[in-house]
Amino acid sequence: MTSETFLFKQREWVALAILAALILLVLPATVDIFRLNLVGKYLTYAFVALGLVLCWGLGGILSLGQGIFFGLGGYCMAMFLKLEASTPEATKIQSTPGIPDFMDWNQVTELPFWWQPFHSFGFTLIAIVAVPTAFAYVIGAAMFKRRVGGVYFAIITQAVAAILTILIIGQQGYTGGVNGITDLRTLLGWDIRTDDAKFVLYFVNAVLLIGCLVLAQFVRVSKFGRLLVAMRDREDRVRFSGYDVSNFKIFVFCLAAAFSAVGGAMFTLQVGFMSPSFVGIVPSIEMVIFCAVGGRLSLFGAVYGALLVNFAKTSFSESFPELWLFAMGGLFIAVVMAFPFGLAGVIREHVEPALLKFTRSVALLRPGAAAAPSSSK
Amino acid sequence: MDPYAPADFLLSVESLTVSFDGFKAVNDLSFYVDENEIRVIIGPNGAGKTTVLDLICGRTRPTEGSIRFRGQELTGMREHEIVHAGIGRKFQNPSIYEDLTVFENLELSFPRGRNVFGALFFRRDAEVRDRVEEIAEMIFLKDHLNTEAAILSHGQKQWLEIGMLLIQSPKLLMLDEPVAGMSIAERRKTAELLNTIIRNQSVIVIEHDMKFVEDIAHRVTVLHQGRVLSEGSMERVKNDPKVVEVYLGH
Amino acid sequence: MIGDYTFGEFTSILAMQGFAGLSLFSVFVLMALGLAIIFGQMGVINMAHGEFMILGAYVTYLCSHLATEYVPVLFPVYFFAAMTLAFCASFGLGVLVEWGLIRHLYRRPLDTLLATWGLSLILQQVYRSVFGAREVGVTLPDWMMGSVALTDMIEIPINGLFVMGLTVLIAFAVYLMMARSTFGKQVRAVLQNRVMAGAVGIDTKRVDRMTFGLGCGIAGIAGSAFTMIGSTGPTAGQLYIVDTFLVVVFGGAGSLIGTIASAFTISQAQSAMEFFMSGSMAKVLTLLTVVGILMLRPQGLFTLNIRR
């Protein structure tokens, strides 16, 4: 037997099993539906963090605009749900029945053409992934083909996030403005606001997340993954080994965008609205910190990072709102200065050796087992 | 039969010029490289040696002139296309993937699965293993296949980078100071290696070590201020008064 | 005829908006100068740059407050003292931050980006705790109020002119310092070859620290200027950081003239468009144009063609 196994190494299978058990069994069994719904919301950010591990951790491409894709995915879903909630019967008190309420409030009298296709659920499902991915492709192709990277790329993505937010807020007749698209009710006639629906959606979300994690792992262990690392450290060498570096970067950026978009759509479904406050500069950079706290090189770390930071955020903002920004700022500085590889790094460097030492000493205490380890001295 | 006439050179560089804001680093340069030839480019600092390699491999765009390789015009092609055409380039400082093992370094350079989906579904099969081992033997690293590249000696890193080029079976190898930082013994082995390589490919070497140059060079091109100062056998070049002037004159 | 306006009215509007844009231009230039100096020197983006500006704004606010309350005699000239103090405060904080944070992160530009973002969050909360969440404004002395009437349709605010003059002065001083002074030469030496600069006896660490402090200090002065065009709040600085960075990149990093020219273009474009459409759409259009141009010409508008 070699250490090479299918997709995951042995210890990674254990990690996957633990994660799956935690989010599929332990949490649903122990916390009430309100808290479970919160966990589900946190897990939607884990999609973004997964993408960032591939893009930033492995590939060295820091995007400060992942909120763009999270938001676009979320808005696509929200537009479908909003149209379903805006039947002529439900909106008959409006001056123009049959269009979303915020359009009516803003004297829009006709559904814009680009809202029309979102009557179809099939189209919406495709759009959730396709629209953000296509957008990422445009940004990525424009930047990477011209060898823009590093800090420049980070700031340009941030600028795009800013532009999109201002645009959404400014065009409130078509987008719902600063409040976003709210008051979403049913998905194909199924009320998503009930506890039962939230319970089911939590599982859909968790399973999708694990699916994305496995897909990300597939990319990570393939030659593509090794090339990403190689590009991060020696871009020229990769280029002069006959690879078109920009195509690889575009692909990984698009993949990260697609993950984020799925997260965004699940966010809309579970939380029941979508607004520009999940698109802009601040949420986008917070998403990076989820990934950094978990460990920028670890896919599992990304999930735990998203869970922990958001859990901390919720509990802090409930009890000491003024302290939260200090904590968040401190977290940014600490994780960069002291723990560049995040939780995963701490576990790898400190917890695992300690565990190993512990199991060895336990083995030593057992009679008969003492001979084997001592011979290595 | 051949896509290009046999009388043609493998590489012909003609009236090549590049200017950086008026400064002509390479100025109206022409030279030709034959099949299975080892050509050494020497010249004082700032003569434009590295720039010439940069121009051939597409890292820098020429202002004027042409570079033809096996009947194909290289100017205007992108870097990876030039690699696919059969040119390999080693950098001045060993440029390898330090976090990966020797095996993985060579594997990443194996010419298969070079596009996105090819890389995603690339499998490490017997063909890859055999080829990697074959190359590792040539570059004296057979016993280090699973060593992390970061802990190799400087000379071994140089070899590894040469190996990463060889695994692509290029028709032309360009080596920028391949023996810098090597011991005497390592230099001798490198010279042997280069002499084995040229059974199938041509090599352009930039080097300062004159002993090494004498060991390997078929012909030598001396560059000075972006122009060819002298060209020919080592013996001829060494006795060229212009070359003596440049190297010893000031 | 353009829209509902006659040609005369149209040019007047453009001129008025142009002068209104001058204040924005001044803030942009001062912010961008500081950012460009730091970015050029260290290759890092200081995401807390906006907060350094706001520090300057709060110092100015404090001075204005103190002057009106306690020494009304000095009120007409308090602004000059405020600017000096704003520079000192931001410079001091900048030096401190370089010592505690930035110097550990050279060679890791993306990490510096995240760390300085963290710093900006902390500073925002400090401002909120000390000055409150409400926005504050300064009282300008009388001589800075009012405006000069050029024609019966075009009026120029005096404070705008003042800030404008100040900006020109500072930009010129920075240029002189970088081009002529020993410090400027040291900065450029370190930028071009850090190892060699160290070898000839330049204290490169000190140069880094002073450069960072200087960049932050200029941001502090930008804060003083900022009090004239907007009210000061804890998060006001964050709104400017992306714009300012775009100004720097658009002009071509490392080019002082480019920075000024691009600050002028961007602020004027935004200001002129604001008259014809909503402020948010003007901003979207401006930023989109800049990002679009940057995608076509990522090296910026004013860069030299140099060997990599």
Written account of the structure:
The complex is a heterotrimer of chains A (377), B (250) and C (308). Chain A has a two-stranded antiparallel ribbon. Chain A is mostly helical. In chain A, 48% of the residues are buried. Chain A is globular, with a radius of gyration of 23 Å. Chain A contains 16 helices and two strands. In chain B, the strands form two sheets. Chain B has a six-stranded mixed sheet, with helices on both faces. With 250 residues, chain B is of the alpha/beta class. Chain B has helices spanning 49-57, 79-85, 102-109, 116-120, 126-138, 154-166, 184-197, 210-216, 234-238, 241-248; strands at residues 11-20, 23-33, 38-42, 64-69, 72-73, 87-90, 172-176, 202-206, 219-224, 227-232. Mean pLDDT of chain B is 86; it is low at 1-6. In chain B, helix 3 crosses helix 5 (126-138) and helix 3 (102-109) runs parallel beside helix 6 (154-166). The termini of chain B are far apart. Chain B has a single domain, classed as Rossmann fold, CATH 3.40.50.300. Chain C has 308 residues and is mostly helical. Chain C has one domain (9-296): ABC transporter involved in vitamin B12 uptake, BtuC, CATH 1.10.3470. In chain C, helix 1 (7-42) runs antiparallel to helix 10. The termini of chain C are far apart. The B-C interface holds B 20-21, 25, 51, 59-60 and C 304-308.
Question: Outline of this structure?
Answer:
Chain A is mostly helical and 377 residues long. Chain A has 16 helices and two strands. A two-stranded antiparallel ribbon of chain A has the order 1-2.
Relevant terms:
heterotrimer; A: 377 residues; mainly alpha; 2 domains; two-stranded antiparallel ribbon; 16 helices; globular; disordered C terminus; B: 250 residues; alpha/beta; Rossmann fold; six-stranded mixed β-sheet; four-stranded antiparallel β-sheet; disordered N terminus
Task: Present the secondary structure layout.
The complex is a heterotrimer of chains A (377), B (250) and C (308).
Chain A: H1 10-30, H2 33-58, H3 66-85, H4 101-105, H5 121-144, H6 150-170, H7 172-175, E1 186-187, E2 190-191, H8 195-221, H9 223-233, H10 235-239, H11 245-271, H12 281-294, H13 299-319, H14 321-337, H15 342-365, H16 371-374
Antiparallel strand pairs in A: 1-2
Helix pairs in contact in A: 1-8, 2-8, 2-9, 2-11, 2-12, 2-13, 3-5, 3-11, 5-11, 8-11, 12-13, 13-14
Chain B: E1 11-20, E2 23-33, E3 38-42, H1 49-57, E4 64-69, E5 72-73, H2 79-85, E6 87-90, H3 102-109, H4 116-120, H5 126-138, H6 154-166, E7 172-176, H7 184-197, E8 202-206, H8 210-216, E9 219-224, E10 227-232, H9 234-238, H10 241-248
Parallel strand pairs in B: 3-8, 3-9, 6-7, 7-8
Antiparallel strand pairs in B: 1-2, 1-4, 4-5, 9-10
Helix pairs in contact in B: 3-5, 3-6
Chain C: H1 7-42, H2 49-69, H3 78-100, H4 109-131, E1 147-149, E2 155-157, H5 158-180, H6 182-192, H7 194-199, H8 204-226, H9 238-251, H10 256-274, H11 279-296
Antiparallel strand pairs in C: 1-2
